[in-house]
Design brief:
It is found in: Cell membrane. Keywords: Cell membrane, Membrane, Transmembrane, Transmembrane helix, Transport. Belongs to the binding-protein-dependent transport system permease family. It is built from 13 helices and no strands. By secondary structure, it is an all-alpha fold. It has a single domain, classed as MetI-like (MetI-like fold), CATH 1.10.3720. The protein is globular, with a radius of gyration of 27 Å.
Length: 328
């Protein structure tokens, strides 16, 4: 073999052996960034675990041998305060029992979280659906349509939502019951979902509108218009797929916000009422025993803080992962 052929083989070998560069989709890039965020991954695992515990609360309680409705009055003293093993952690009652009633605290938290999560999820879905539609319509059509929608959005944003819900709670619940739509706690849950959604969508619609205004001037939209694409096709095929990133982030940040809102209104007596249980009701009950049994208040408050914090950390991690300006 000649010197030239040997040299050529040595030069060609690394080139032929080098692996091909594989392209990555935006989804793969975002997932790769998210996996590198240890805090976000930990928060996502905690969030999934808590949602699963809430969803399968009956099964979890059956496995642990606890029941949210059982009264353990034998473990309470004359003042209704737990004594002995029931006052703290035990195999029969992992988080103790509730003063006054003797109900298992862990079972009450699990079953209460089902109502809290239901209100938060339905409110988030309703508010974001309305805001998504209004934001796309206003941002794409602009002009007079955008002007009317913008002024209506400003009108809603000017309302003090908290005081409106407080003032209209009782009359609206009565009206819902008179119309036969729902009764009791069902009417209160429906009221919270409707009013929190009604006052929650304007802010999200502003975000979507700004994104649509930017996307509307991009080259791929102009090319679609030049090719004769209809408005419906441009909105569904060109705009909507490019709006999922802010939607995902807002969902992860809105869910804990509405979860905390439900707890606040139930704490104030405007949401779900006993004998049903939510985290707001448990917090309200815990304040009456905070001096004689602080563990009841601390466990309930810590549960709400952990859930809200976990979802917020997931939202922050998703925002960083979906940011196109982040490092690849």
């Amino acid at each position: 073999m000649s010197l030239n052929s040997a040299t050529n083989s040595e030069v060609d070998a690394p080139i032929s052996a080098s692996p091909a560069i594989a392209g990555r989709s935006p989804r793969q890039i975002a997932w790769s960034r998210f996996k590198r965020n240890k805090v976000g991954m930990t928060a996502a695992g905690i969030s999934i675990f808590l949602l699963s515990m809430s969803l399968f609360a009956p099964i979890v309680c059956r496995v642990l041998g606890i029941n949210p409705n059982d009264l353990n009055l034998e473990g309470l003293n004359s003042s209704g305060i737990p004594t002995g093993d029931l006052a703290g952690f035990s195999m029969e009652h992992p988080l103790g029992v509730i003063p006054g009633t003797g109900r298992d605290l862990l079972a009450q938290l699990l079953y209460g979280s089902r109502i809290s999560f239901m209100i938060a999820i339905l409110t988030t879905a309703t508010a974001l659906t309305i805001g998504f539609f209004v934001g796309i319509v206003g941002g794409y059509f602009r002009g007079r349509v955008d002007g009317y929608l913008g002024r209506f959005t400003d009108f809603l944003l000017a309302f003090p939502a908290f005081f409106m819900i407080v003032a209209l709670s009782e009359p609206m619940v009565d009206r819902i019951e008179k119309f036969g739509i729902a009764e009791g706690n069902g009417a209160r849950v429906l009221f919270l979902i409707l009013f929190l959604s009604f006052f929650g969508w304007p802010g999200f619609s502003r975000l979507i509108r700004s994104q649509v205004l930017s996307l509307r001037e991009r080259e791929f939209v102009t090319a679609a218009q030049a090719m004769g694409a209809t408005r419906r096709r441009i909105i569904l095929k060109e705009l909507v797929p490019n709006l999922w990133a802010p939607v995902i982030v807002v969902v992860s940040l809105s869910l804990p916000g509405y979860l905390a809102s439900e707890a606040v209104f139930s704490f104030l007596g405007l949401g779900v009422q006993p004998p049903a249980s939510t985290w707001g009701i448990l917090l309200s009950n815990a304040t009456r025993f905070v001096t004689v049994m602080p563990s009841f208040f601390l466990i309930t408050a810590a549960s709400l803080v952990i859930v809200v914090l976990a979802f917020n950390l997931v939202g922050d991690a998703l925002r960083d992962a979906l940011d196109p300006r982040a490092d690849k």
